């Protein structure tokens, strides 16, 4: 007997597939996960994939948008020093599947379609805008100064995780990269005069 799936259930199934794909792609890369593996991990049959998505590339873009959105939500809750602490650390480095999509998949995205690249560009732009507004520049800073500083800082944060992950898990270098980059990022933050520091 064939049970008809309601629209609400079909939408819930689709969201579950996107969530599962988002995690697996971050863990294994876009090319490291096949459609059959992905659907099995989500608890569905391979054949059901094309009821939800036109292609694996469509799912890659949607899963990336989903996880970049979560990174944005995380960034919205943090100030810039808080972002550095949460991002450039061992826990984030070791948590590939639950970590940042930029650190996990930017290298892969560079070899994908313009649709996937556009998804990354939009996600990166939103995170930059959110953090640039919080960057502690003085009142006499030039227009766009916070954005410039945040592009530099975000690039260093992502690079630190990528380089550290490329080293063996137990290597001293993996930790040294994180420790040095985190310290240098903090050292690069401006020290504002007391009258310009925002108090909660």
From TrEMBL:
<protein>
    <submittedName>
        <fullName>TetR family transcriptional regulator</fullName>
    </submittedName>
</protein>
<dbReference type="InterPro" id="IPR036271">
    <property type="entry name" value="Tet_transcr_reg_TetR-rel_C_sf"/>
</dbReference>
<keyword id="KW-0805">Transcription regulation</keyword>
<feature type="DNA-binding region" description="H-T-H motif">
    <location>
        <begin position="34"/>
        <end position="53"/>
    </location>
</feature>
<keyword id="KW-0238">DNA-binding</keyword>
<keyword id="KW-0804">Transcription</keyword>
<dbReference type="InterPro" id="IPR009057">
    <property type="entry name" value="Homeodomain-like_sf"/>
</dbReference>
<feature type="domain" description="HTH tetR-type">
    <location>
        <begin position="11"/>
        <end position="71"/>
    </location>
</feature>
<dbReference type="Pfam" id="PF00440">
    <property type="entry name" value="TetR_N"/>
</dbReference>
<dbReference type="InterPro" id="IPR001647">
    <property type="entry name" value="HTH_TetR"/>
</dbReference>
């Amino acid at each position: 007997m064939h049970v008809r799936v309601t629209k609400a259930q079909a939408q819930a199934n689709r969201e579950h597939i996107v969530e599962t794909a988002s995690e697996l792609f971050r863990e294994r890369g876009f090319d490291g996960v096949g459609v059959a593996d992905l659907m099995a991990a989500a608890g569905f049959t391979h054949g059901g994939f094309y009821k939800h998505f036109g292609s694996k590339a469509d799912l890659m873009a949607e899963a990336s948008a989903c996880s970049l959105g979560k990174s944005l939500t995380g960034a919205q809750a943090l100030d810039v020093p808080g972002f550095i602490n949460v991002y450039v650390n061992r826990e984030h480095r070791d948590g590939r599947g639950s970590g940042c999509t930029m650190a996990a998949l930017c290298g892969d995205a560079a070899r994908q379609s313009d649709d996937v690249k556009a998804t990354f560009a939009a996600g990166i732009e939103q995170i930059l805008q959110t953090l640039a507004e919080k960057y502690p520049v003085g009142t006499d800073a030039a227009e766009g100064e916070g954005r410039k500083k945040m592009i530099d800082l975000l690039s260093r944060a992502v690079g630190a995780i990528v380089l550290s992950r490329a080293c063996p898990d137990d290597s001293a270098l993996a930790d040294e990269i994180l420790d040095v980059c985190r310290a240098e990022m903090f050292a690069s933050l401006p020290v504002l005069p007391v009258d310009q520091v925002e108090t909660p």
